[in-house]
Please model this.
Amino acid sequence: MLENLQEQPKDKILALMEMFRADPRAEKIDLGVGVYRNAQGVTPIMRAVKAAEKTLWETEETKAYTGLAGDPAFAEAMRGLVLGDAVEAGRVAAAATPGGTGAIRQGLELIRLASPGATIWLSAPTWPNHPSIIRYLGMPMREYRYFDAAARGVDFEGMMADLAQAKPGDVVLLHGCCHNPTGANLTLPQWQEVAALLEKTGATPFIDIAYQGFGDGLEEDAAGTRLIAARLPETIIAASCSKNFGIYRERTGILMAVAENAARKPVVQGNLAFLNRQNFSFPPDHGARLVTMILNDAALRADWQAELEEMRLGMLRIREALAAELRRLSGSDRFGFIAQHRGMFSLIGASPEQVELMREKHGIYMVGDSRINIAGLTEAAVPKLAAAIIDAGV
Ligand code: PMP
Model:
């Protein structure tokens, strides 16, 4: 039987990591994989996470199963973090999942149950795992224009024109903040316009929010999601705790489905639990428990927010330093977009040949579409990257 298996395409980012590891040059720079790193190049365990883990170790009395949808306290804490008071709690069904990826997968399966044949609309470009999972599930998908490659900003006119073609029952996948891979995001007035268009077409929003707190701040980064959820009858949300709590390997995420009214919530909730049961039964609990402890304890929460803010501001400083150095070297403002983008990533608009040149000549590793991970840079490495970008003729 196993001889029938065919080789799967290699994940490009993981292949890039292998190449980076094999490169003997000491001054090489890894801007590939999407993991936050501090000025020392380390992905730290956040202080509040360590503190919560210590308390948990001392006080946890059982490792028995939680519920199929995870601990309701986690769902409640995450509803508050992501949605604030945008919608009534009684309308929000939620289930813990293995990471944000698990939430996306379960969300897509929920959509397939509720609206078989629904087309999923994806931004061009998007995180490659979105189309990969959708294809694997056999669901129809279409792209909407999103990135204006010349301006390195959102092609809002193109986006609106494409999404006007969505049909009732279709689903529009939106990045809640810190768009991956482009770094270009909607303004609040643009979110309003998208909400109005969704209302008009009858398409359902599915929001992937994986970087809340990495862009303009915890509240600011959730503003688009809240606006959509408050205005549309139904919203599906996949949230990840991997980045903003730095608990990547704990696999902590949540799928939330805002139902049209509280009466409809129990059936939605039952379907979320059913889908968890089919795929993995009980979701992982360790990371979810830490997140719940942090969000529900004033001191831990304040310390977590302070550290998250340090991380966010550090990335912004790097963005500004890189944009300034490129302004100096190029004598133009054409790299100003790097300081405008938000989150861990920016698509710098280099060709595959230029990306290869930067890798081979300068030991700078970025994904083939020229996505750079800002958190992979240190302030000391900024001049080297800027010089390489200019040398490659970007
Ligand atoms: N959505 C986007 C856009 C992402 O970039 C990521 C992480 N790379 C995720 C979701 C999910 O991350 P995880 O499964 O690690 O929580």
